[in-house]
Design the sequence.
DNA sequence: AATGAATGAGGTTTCATTCAT
DNA sequence: CATGAATGAAACCTCATTCAT
């Protein structure tokens, strides 16, 4: 391939980062069962393999960046809804989460994969910076929600996230269901999981919010 | 290497499976940051690389088997405690879980890794068989616990497990803390996580058990 | 598997040798494209892998033994025909060869494989003994045929054999033809090869037998 | 190993293919008894194992490429000689072949090995492409030779090649002779074989060329 | 900055052969 | 003699990563 035009100024570089992440996300959604390799992502982004390493120091950092984009989307959506005038009850919160999970089917598989990899190849500084940003963002979410849930704490948000993530790992579409689902093109976020999640969050929030009350 | 004594009857073969899993676990605990490769595990088990493939069809099946052993240990401990005469309250349950997590430091990292891998290279039949056995075992746990918590359901157990797993992934020793901890040989199950888990489980159980009441 | 009855006397051992060769031949004919591995041959023979090594010192020796059986069959058939009263012309010889090749479809593939392996793992003594026996047998063939072809020499027999073998390697069913043939169950000894062989042998014999005349 | 200079343009890549084939050929000639493994060939070529797989999809494709080079060398030599003004008789042809076989001692062992392997692990497309190229090249040989032998056909060329190959397999240096020869460094193309081949080709060509006349 | 050839680790697989039982 | 678990060499193959161009 002839050499691509270069991204020289910082804005262009940021743009190209997103171009790469978009390509990776597209591949992931095409086949959520497998993680594309670097060569495929590069090709999908119209870049050469080596070029990706100018924007991400490792494949895992790239995955983490995808995950962080998901997180941000998620957090921003909650903040936006919390900012609206309509009051929120627990059920509204659960409905919001449900909607977001369905709208972003790559979120949980990718989060799971990322947390599996964190075990391994992420550099300290990158992981630390990620955590910093995430917690800062989460603070904003908590602040926005406290308008509707005065007793809500960051701890409860973490617990909710943990339930969302952990339950998915335990109830994720079983292989057999998966097989059936592939053939019938059913949504990956099965009702099973979403219903179980609704029950769990309801119990958790009731327990948590009544405690402090 | 000279040939080892052979595992001829099924019991001996099962024993040798465990010998391999023990070796893998030992290596894991020696250096929780990295997963040993097959050659190392084989060497640690005093066997040839090819021999491992007589007992596990792939590295991932081996990891899954390690994870399943942890699960079983965990479940059996709960069942045993539930079978004792002393009555159990929520705090007893939380204390039990806390103790088990501390006693089995490889549990959560390995579980996380396994759930990350399930995404990928495990065959349908193996994954399915694993799920079957796990759910059957979990049924026994629920039955044993209902003596102490009449309103307890399998759903609540799953939710609790999800919290345990998900919270750990969110609060796991951050890389920086990890670095400090390695040098001071602090237990991997930080108080941070265990305390957060205690709070979360308490809220969840209170919400869940009071709901139905 | 429970232990088989043992072959103690030499006759039984020879019988078991043939039992193994029969099993190997059956597998070869089932799928002439691939050479079965030792485990498959052992299973087909109803014996354990290790047992085969009591009868053949290596897999290659087993193949060579199969090949030698083919050779002997071939030679004996020629000797038998030559012993009949009906006179033989070149065309009779060619027809006889053609018939034998069709009747023993494993002959040429196995011969080819054996000659490829001779390059490698056969022990000196085994290879030498094989050659001795083969040449002795070939002498008988030549003696029998000279009744019909007074000018025939062992050299011509060797040349003919070389043509049979070499031409097959050059004209063997091409992969694409092979694919088509598999689906239509056509005989592996294509007319192409047999016709080419007929022409070649005719030329060779005419040239050879007329020369000396 | 530090990284080698890269083969960027197609010509350099073709050159590197030959570099690999040269290394393999060198190893083969060093010890004709055994086929070097991929790691050895890579090392001999000064490349990494993985790099070889950039140029040859499997070990067998590499062997086939070596064989094809031999074939091409052989064919080109015949074409060149045929293009000279000096007229050719059968004896010239036989002398030419003899010289080529002596000059390329790896030719027949490798051809034999390749034809043994074709039985097995070569993909359809590779095998087919090889055959296509070979037959196209052979056509050129026939065209060039017809200037000297008007009655010569491609069939006769194939028959001759079959004799060359088949006779070698039947008369190849017997293991015992081989042993003696190794110690005395005698040429692998024994007089036995070359003389037998001369007789056979003479008979074949006389028979073939006189037929049509 | 961009490229993609080269690297090399390592998991996967197959299998002939050995040897304790 | 018979067994089949164990061996270990070697091929296969993928792939993240590096670095000369």
Sequence:
């Amino acid at each position: 391939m002839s050499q691509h035009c270069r991204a020289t100024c910082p804005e262009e570089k940021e743009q190209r980062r997103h171009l790469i992440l978009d390509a990776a996300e597209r591949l992931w959604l095409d086949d959520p069962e497998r993680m594309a390799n670097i060569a495929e992502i590069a090709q999908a982004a119209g870049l050469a393999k080596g070029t990706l390493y100018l924007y991400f120091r490792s494949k895992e950092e790239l995955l983490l960046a995808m995950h962080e984009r998901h997180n941000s989307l998620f957090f921003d959506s909650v903040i936006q809804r919390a900012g609206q005038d309509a009051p929120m009850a627990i059920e509204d919160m659960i409905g919001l989460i449900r909607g977001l999970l369905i709208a972003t089917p790559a979120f949980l598989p990718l989060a799971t994969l990322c947390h599996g990899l964190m075990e391994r190849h992420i550099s300290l500084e990158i992981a630390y910076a990620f955590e910093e940003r995430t917690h800062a963002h989460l603070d904003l979410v908590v602040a926005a929600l406290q308008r509707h849930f005065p007793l809500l704490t960051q701890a409860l948000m973490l617990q909710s996230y943990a339930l969302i993530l952990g339950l998915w790992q335990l109830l994720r579409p079983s292989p057999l269901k998966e097989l059936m689902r592939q053939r019938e093109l059913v949504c990956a976020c099965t009702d099973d999981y979403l219903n179980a999640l609704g029950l769990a969050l309801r119990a958790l929030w009731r327990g948590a919010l009544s405690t402090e009350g």
In short: Residues 1-56 of chain B form a domain with the Arc Repressor Mutant, subunit A fold (CATH 1.10.10.60).
